[in-house]
Amino acid sequence: xxxxxxxxxxxxxxxxxxxxxxxxxxxxxxxxxxxxxxxxxxxxxxxxxxxxxxxxxxxxxxxxxxxxxxxxxxxxxxxxxxxxxxxxxxxxxxxxxxxxxxxxxxxxxxxxxxxxxxxxxxxxxxxxxxxxxxxxxxxxxxxxxxxxxxxxxxxxxxxxxxxxxxxxxxxxxxxxxxxxxxxxxxxxxxxxxxxxxxxxxxxxxxxxx
Length: 209
What we know:
Elements: E1 6-9, H1 18-32, H2 48-59, H3 62-79, H4 86-95, E2 99-103, H5 108-118, E3 126-128, H6 140-150, E4 157-161, H7 164-173, E5 177-180, H8 199-208
Parallel strand pairs: 1-2, 1-4, 2-3, 4-5
């Protein structure tokens, strides 16, 4: 069996719990701004332009909206926590000599501060963000570019992500094995290979090795 040489991780809701951080930050902004109910947008998987527009719609006053928007992102960053056991998983993979990468559809303004805040930067040999390529996941061109970067064949790499479409199915369509990060996903568990907790990632990877 081909030896696995690299693991590609999605970022949000795979390495860390963005769901929890976003909800906590949104609730805090609502209270701080005196809103009588929780912000009616869901600040998950949104880029900054669309999220800013929803703040303006909610608060009406653009000045208040901008202040709330800035506060939200500061709080979201402070609330970020990697999933329990994820740091240990990354350490084991790194010690085993595997190359590690982040492949995210989020922009660099979001990804780099998040990795730094959690102290995960040094685990990764490469970090690919929205701006890294002309296309984003689930485009096959993105996965091809990452394989080319590492000089590896598809069967030497594993993708780990919470999205069945963007991470799991897209990787498999390119010949890359994939693990569904079900612990961070809102989707049904993938029938072929899923991790109920970060530790399960190691079981799947080393079984394949």
